[in-house]
Amino acid sequence: MVRRTSSDNDIFSGPDKAPWRRSADTHDAYLLKYVTTRGALKLPKYQYRSTNSSLLYHYVIQHYLAWLLPLLPRWMAPNLVTLIGLWFTAVAHASLIWYCPLLQGVAPRWVYFLNGVCFWSYQTLDHLDGKQARRTGSSSPLGLLFDHGCDAINTTTVVLNLAAVWQLGPGLRTYWMWAGFALAFFLGTLEEYYTGYMNLPTLNAPNEGLALIYGIFFLTAAVGPEFWTQEVEALGCGRNS
Length: 241
Prior knowledge:
The chain is globular, with a radius of gyration of 21 Å. By secondary structure, the protein is mostly helical. Strand 3 and strand 4 form a beta hairpin. Residues 1-24 have low confidence and may be disordered. The strands form two sheets. The chain has a two-stranded parallel sheet with strand order 1-2. It has eight helices and four strands.
């Protein structure tokens, strides 16, 4: 049981209090729906900690990020950078689903190329939002929540787009692929919850995983979507089986 003082009743009082928090009662009623009192008191002190051992990030990605970061204006909020990344994946998904609404059939090659560009852009902006937050001194728990929320949405977006590329249809293969992606995301978040760190190993989803995904889109744009349904004689089945 946490003893609350009068100053604890409204932890966002003073100049930092948001306009919609008109009273301590309103604030508590909203906040305590989702977190405990102890959690509410610790929330403003939360700091994101992570390690990234990705070879691709250290030898390739971070170098062009260092060139791109100064191009972002300092007035641009990190959450806006995150939102633009989500917009890129929404464009990719809408373009592919327009031609393959049941995750079957083929789309023009430019659609697959567009998907590759959009998911590369998403990966780049997903790295840049955190760097922009540290650059402008605007890191916050809300920013982390928004960033991870967009990543969770894109877990489904990626699976649906890959299913459309491989022409898997709305069946069990698509479901199990989504379940695998979702489980990996959940376990990574669960590890962070208990350890206090987001640990990204040498091969990880945000770096090598996304690179493999937009590589698949670029390959499909180059060789055509029929590549995935062609039968491989050695296997006796198509590449998407």
